[in-house]
Specification:
This protein is mostly helical. Helix content is about 65%, strand content about 0%. The chain has helices at about 10-35, 45-55, 70-80, 85-95, 100-130.
Length: about 130
């Protein structure tokens, strides 16, 4: 996470956001090593727990000072894995993305989809689960 643009946000918040991004990357790495999809447990459950942590910290809100919405989380992961440069280079050269990076790109799409689905469901929870006595 870029600390320069968010100087007024606490160091603990930045550390938590960095930890969440690192842990998401680790879960992806574990799933890749096991050649299992992220959509299966234990990986899905681990990613969901990280989503819940990010949401509880206020990082998933659209106007969050530290932004771990699906788009920005995936931007952070893409930068961490060097996918930004690889995809730009492949587009410029009109060549294929190397297989190792293509696997990371597929994992990134899975993270994006899962994170977006959880965010959508989380925001609509009250709509379908009204409080008793309301």
């Amino acid at each position: 996470m870029s600390r320069d643009s968010l100087n007024h946000v606490s160091s603990a918040s930045h550390d938590l956001a960095d930890d969440i991004v690192r842990r998401v990357a680790n879960v992806v790495g574990e799933a890749e090593a096991a050649t299992k999809p992220l959509e299966l447990d234990p990986y899905r459950g681990q990613l969901f727990e990280l989503f819940v942590m990010a949401d509880a910290a206020g990082f998933v809100a659209e106007d969050a000072e530290i932004d771990l919405t699906a788009d920005n989380l995936c931007r952070e992961l893409a930068a961490l894995w060097g996918l930004t440069e690889v995809t730009q280079d492949a587009m410029a050269a009109q060549s294929k993305i190397p297989p190792a990076q293509l696997g990371k790109l597929r994992a990134l799409w899975s993270v994006l989809r899962l994170w977006m689905e959880w965010d959508y469901a989380w925001k609509r929870w009250e709509e379908f689960h009204p409080r008793q006595g309301s």
